[in-house]
Amino acid sequence: MREKISFYFERNEGMNTDKKSIVYLHIATMLFGLSGVIRQFVEVPSVTVALGRVICSSPLLLGVIVAKKEKLCLDNRKDYFLIIAAGMVLAAHWTTFFQAIQVASVAIGTISFSTYPLFLTFLEPLLFHERIQKKGLIGAIILMIGVFITIPEFSLENRVTVGIIWGLLSAVTYAVLTLANRYFAKKYDEKLICFYEQGTTMIVLLPTLFLVRVQMKAQDIAGIILIGCVCTAVAYTLFVSAQKKVKAQTAGLISGLETVYGIVYAWILLGEIPTVREVVGGVVIISVAVFTSLQKE
Question: What is the mean pLDDT of residues 67-92?
């Protein structure tokens, strides 16, 4: 009888843990989606927002690692070189992502960023010597259709088109970063990877303080702190913590909602109502992105 009672409580404790992890995943994804909207309240260049983001998050991540007395060094020089390169890619990714949002809208920036599985389809087999799957090719074609639906006209004078180009650049860099993290994840803790990448991003972007003239207002500083501490460091910690208790398939599905959350926030807080073209193209792109996440389980 005692064994049955013990089993019952252990089972329910596991169920509660899974539910809590799913809640954490949703909270983290909602915070990720919020960063693009907060960026619209910050009246400084995108590169400055990206720099401020890592200035806030890097020390916080370092503090967590040191407090937990976790490993702080990498195994060899090759990994230091690779993670520095990944940090440089991350600098480009966040700058282009915020630029896409600034030029066009939150909807365009997040939707075009969601095309990163398209680039993973071709880059992953190339770098890891794997075959390109037919499902991946079909998904890539559908993603391109979604992009073409979203583009109003092929003209650099159109803000939406320019925003999509910036968003696609953000997607390319994120795809490269994802592949780099696939290598690092086999050897290091996620917090350590994120700290080195974001620390490198901070160092890479620091010279922009002297190259880009910026007049900071209290609203700008508050927005950057929110993006760096809440939408990056806190959200990342929640997401990583939750991933240990749920399947990768579930995490991939929930993270795919970042674009949806971002568009909803922009609708409520900024009054940015997506056009029919953006909605249709976004549904196509997000559906393929979520489907790709499910297939990789």
Answer: 91
Secondary structure, 3-state, the chain: CHHHHHHHHHHHHHHHHHHHHHHHHHHHHHHHHHHHHHHCCCCCCHHHHHHHHHHHHHHHHHHHHHHCCCCCCCCCHHHHHHHHHHHHHHHHHHHHHHHHHHHCCHHHHHHHHCCHHHHHHHHHHHHHCCCCCHHHHHHHHHHHHHHHHHCCCCCCCCHHHHHHHHHHHHHHHHHHHHHHHHHHCCCCCHHHHHHHHHHHHHHHHCCHHHHCCCCCCHHHHHHHHHHHHHHHHHHHHHHHHHHCCCCHHHHHHHHCCHHHHHHHHHHHHHCCCCCHHHHHHHHHHHHHHHHHHHHCC
Q: Does position 84 have pLDDT exceeding 90, yes or no? A: yes
Look at the block and give the residue holding tokens 């909807």.
Answer: 107
**Rounded distance, CA 71 to CA 104, Å?**
42
Distance of CA 161 to the CA centre of its chain: 22
Both tokens of 61, joined, read: 């991540």
The pTM of the full predicted model, rounded to 2 decimals, is 0.78
Cβ-based neighbours of 126, under 8 Å, separated by 6 or more: none
pLDDT digits (tens, 9 = 90+) for 221-254: 999 999 888 888 788 777 766 766 666 556 656 7
Q: Could you tell me the CA-to-CA distances from 42 to 52, 101, 203, 245 in Å, in that order?
A: 11, 12, 22, 36
Residue type (1 letter), 96: T
Neighbours of 231 (CB within 10 A): 24
Backbone angles phi, psi at 256, to 5 degrees: -65, -15
